[in-house]
């Protein structure tokens, strides 16, 4: 395993320490943990650029066998050449990607107050969120499977899907858009809002949960 420790508050180096760059190997799985604010940018090279303009900006990077783990406290930009297949964010991490992430399959797992915002173009998408996490998705997916739990929020109204399976429980909220088939299950005060006038909606709501249909 390769591990890099970057402390970007070295006034000692003046302006030279404003940014630190780490070469990144190709990866399929990306995990972001802690108070990391990460911006994703598609590029012709893979690298992590750590912002050194804030005091105590510390980022740790671990790379091994297609896995890239970014932890610590600070802001950084991750430039990637190829789309990845799995994103996990937790413990207050914030991950934003404006460029279209085009892959066949993608798994997104967001927990413990983390925030993720992505623009995707995928065939099969799996999204899981819990513990006050917030996920915002745009773009398109053929099939989308969702589970949101424990006050998590999924805003996927601007993600156009054909078929969606969505489960929301324990005060979680999910906004989804589909044109084909929707299987929706809500329990324990959860709320699901369905957009896009799907052809078929199979729904089950229990224990004060609500499933709403919007045009």
From TrEMBL:
Keywords: Signal. Pfam families: DUF2807 (PF10988). Residues 1-18 form the signal peptide. InterPro entries: DUF2807. The keyword Signal applies. Residues 26-198 form the Putative auto-transporter adhesin head GIN domain. It comes from the Bacteria. This is Putative auto-transporter adhesin head GIN domain-containing protein. It comes from Flavobacterium akiainvivens.
């Amino acid at each position: 395993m390769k591990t890099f420790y970057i402390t970007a508050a070295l006034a000692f180096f003046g302006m030279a320490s404003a940014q630190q760059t780490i070469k990144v190997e190709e990866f399929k799985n990306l995990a972001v943990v802690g108070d990391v604010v990460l911006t994703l940018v598609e590029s012709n090279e893979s690298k992590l650029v750590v912002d050194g303009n804030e005091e105590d900006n510390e980022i740790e990077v671990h790379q091994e066998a297609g896995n890239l783990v970014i932890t610590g406290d600070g802001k950084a930009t991750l430039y990637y050449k190829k789309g990845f297949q799995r994103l996990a964010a937790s413990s207050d991490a914030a991950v934003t990607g404006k460029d279209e992430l085009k892959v066949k399959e993608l798994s997104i797992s967001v927990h413990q107050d983390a925030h993720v915002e992505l623009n995707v173009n995928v065939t099969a998408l799996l999204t899981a969120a819990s513990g006050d996490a917030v996920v915002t998705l745009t773009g398109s997916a053929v099939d989308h499977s969702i589970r949101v739990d424990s006050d998590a929020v999924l805003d996927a109204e601007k993600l156009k899907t054909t078929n969606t399976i969505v489960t929301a429980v324990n005060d979680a909220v999910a906004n989804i858009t589909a044109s084909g088939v929707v299987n929706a299950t809500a329990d324990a005060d959860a709320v699901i809002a369905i957009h896009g006038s799907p052809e078929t909606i199979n729904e089950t709501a229990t224990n004060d949960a609500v499933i709403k249909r919007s045009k």
